[in-house]
Design goal:
Layout: H1 17-21, H2 24-27, H3 63-66, H4 81-85, E1 95-100, E2 106-109, H5 110-116, E3 120-127, E4 132-142, H6 143-150, E5 158-163, E6 183-187, H7 188-191, E7 197-202, E8 205-206, E9 216-218, E10 231-237, H8 244-248, E11 272-275, E12 284-286, H9 294-297
Parallel strand pairs: 1-10, 4-11
Antiparallel strand pairs: 1-2, 3-4, 4-7, 5-6, 5-10, 7-8, 7-9, 11-12
Amino acid sequence: MANRWKNTLKESDATPESVYLNRRQIMAGLAGLGAIGGAASVGLMSGSKPAVASTDPLEPNTLEEITSYNNFYEFGTGKDDPARYADQMTTSPWTVKVDGMVDRPGDYTFEDIMAKMTIEERIYRFRCVEAWSMVIPWNGFELADLLELAGVQSSAKYIAFETLLRPEEMPGVNFPVLDWPYVEGLRMDEAMHPLTMMATGIYGRDLPNQNGAPLRLVVPWKYGFKSIKSIVGITAMDQEPPTSWNKSQPREYGFYSNVNPEVNHPRWSQASERRIGGGLFAKRVPTLMFNGYEDEVAGLYAGMDLRAHF
């Protein structure tokens, strides 16, 4: 098993559940402000000093509001499309094909995976490439444990991931927004890092379909689109795998996509971010290098030009 990560945060540190699931109302400036206290802190490795985010009070949104906004283009490009259509996605039974440079390739059922993994809560920062952020309590396990279960070989250098492609349940894939299926990838040391996890739930409940049920990647020091949803394929390989947004717009979305306030998106600054829950005119706060996980992950990129390898 991989080295265990020690959670340093309380659930009260997290973005409220209603605020997390409802982005459309908040980002449109329609969410009310109320009286939920608590700082949003950074989930760090044991012994690290957590950074503290804004403590502006927020009012939770209703259940109807919290399920009305998401980005999951397989169900359409409208922000309410995932909530409208994601219930069409069948998540049981669910199988993940693990292949490539592994000793034990095969079709792993979700139940088999869960029976062998240590499930825990991780409260992490989440930073979208669109320059908004939040703090989320995920439930899941370290990706390294699954890779070790499959017997990833020492000669493998990268891990590729693939999202479910089921046109009869995913109306969005009928449009060429991206080259379907959605694919992502990590370098092996990123994949094996103790912060990298496979999420199976949020707030102690199963992942909603629109949030990537039943199994999604979470890499907290990278922009959110790297955290691929509804995974059905994992491949160990010795070449850098293609990734969907990099294939679509390589000038805007690099393979690494580490959170970096010094490297702007071509169409907007990444130097600051707006914390979800503060309303349309919420005060922006500086973005932290590697989303606040610099002490934990900067060594992975020692000697690299992070502007060239964005």
